[in-house]
Amino acid sequence: MGSEINKTRPVVVVSSDALGRLPLRLIAPITEWKDHFKGSIWHVRIDPDGRNGLSKVSSIDTLQLRGIDLSRLVKKLGTVPSTVMEELVAAVAAVVEYQ
Q1: What total number of domains does the chain contain?
Q2: What pTM value is reported for the model?
């Protein structure tokens, strides 16, 4: 399937809890940060800290947004600060050319 990501990895749940009755969540996968991601509008850098549960500098890949069944969410690693969520929303808006 080309460049689609097909392995287990951490994710950011993007969808609202208000959708709680649906057994689906919209997620953005997290991958290890690469220097060539710098300047790519769809990669949001996230540094490891005590709140997010990450062990290395990573990237939230907004081009890989997808809906997944709740059963695929294994465990909560942590939380993402509002500043990173704002960058994530801006990256998605840029990717879909929303102004």
Answers
A1: 1
A2: 0.87
